[in-house]
Specification:
Elements (H helix, E strand, L loop, with lengths): L6 H22 L9 H13 L4 H8 L3 H13 L3 E5 L7 E5 L1 H22 L4 H19 L1
Antiparallel strand pairs: 1-2
Length: 145
């Protein structure tokens, strides 16, 4: 990572952190299903992006302890949002797959959040919108590091 070279860099990092946190909090309020925790939604999102996975793989991807992920998966299964299936190579393990109900809920959630963001973005001028389009892939890269 490059070292921060100036007060301007420090200020930019601070502003970015604060803005991302505020935007994230506001996005969380745009949920379709209020009965799911943000962590449960994150697990469903990971399954949608990455496909089926073992609970251990999900725990690594979501940065939680395996026992916590086991509880999260059990709650999602009880709500009919994931299925546990035998692992194809290791019968001691299970593979978690999202259900059609989860796919539909995630699609509705994405639609609602995208509409909310589009409404906010409508308040930007063309130059700000161009900057945001350019910044989106960079923010995505930061989110994946």
């Amino acid at each position: 990572m490059p070292e921060l070279s100036s007060r301007d860099d420090d200020a930019a990092v601070n502003a970015l952190r604060a803005a991302v946190m505020r935007l994230s909090r506001r996005l969380k309020h745009q949920r379709v299903d209020e009965s799911l925790t943000p962590t449960e939604m994150a697990v469903l999102g990971t399954l949608a992006r990455c496909g089926r996975a073992t609970p251990s793989e999900l725990a690594r991807k979501e940065h939680v302890q395996p026992p916590s992920m086991t509880r999260i998966v059990a709650m999602l299964e009880a709500k009919g949002l994931v299925r546990l299936e035998p692992h194809p190579e290791d019968r001691r393990q299970k593979v978690v797959t999202q259900t059609e109900e989860a796919e539909a809920m995630l699609e509705e959630s994405r639609r609602k959040r995208n509409a909310w963001l589009a409404e906010l973005a409508a308040g930007l001028d063309e130059e700000e919108w161009a900057v945001l389009r350019t910044a989106a892939p960079v923010l995505e890269k930061l989110a994946q590091l």
